[in-house]
TrEMBL record:
This is Mid1-interacting protein 1-like. GO terms for cellular component: cytoplasm; nucleus. Residues 44-63 are annotated as: Disordered. It comes from the Eukaryota. Keywords: Cytoplasm, Nucleus. It comes from Cirrhinus mrigala. Belongs to the SPOT14 family. Pfam families: Spot_14.
Amino acid sequence: MQLSNDAQCNKHSLLNVMNRFIAAANNMDETIMVPSLLRDVPLEDQDSQASVSHNNNEPSFPSKQRDMYEHYLLLKSIKNDMEWGLLKREMGGSFLEMAVKHEEPPVNGGAAEEGTDLEGQFHYHLHGLFAVLSKLTVQADHLTNRYKREIGGSSL
C-alpha cells in the first residue's frame, strides 16, 4: 500500500501523468454538453497549432482529425481505453496477446541479453507513453478551453 501512495505523490510518475490526462478528458467531457456543436469547427488555427505542436521542440505532425468533434471522440476513446483496457482487436485478441505473439525470441543470447533488451524496451516505451499522454492532456485542455471560448461563450 505504501508503494501506491509514494507513486501518486511523485509528479513524474506514470500514474500521475495518466491521472492528469484522465482528469483533463473528464473535464472536457463535463464541459462539452453538446458535442455535436463541434462538427465542422476547424480543429485549430494556424497560429495556435504552431504554438501547441512545437512544444518541447518536437516536430509538428498534421492531425488526422478534420474537426473538433472528431478530436473530441478520439480523446474520449483513448480515455476509455485507458480506464477499461483494450478488449478485443480486429485481429482476434487483446493488444497484449498480439504484442506477445509478435515478439521474436532471441536467436543467440542468454538471460542477461534478454533482460537488458527488455529493460531498454520498457524505458523506450515508457518515455513515449509519457510524451503522448502529456500531449493528449494539453490537447484535451485546449479543446475544452476552445469550446468554452467559441461555443460556450455565445450561449451565455
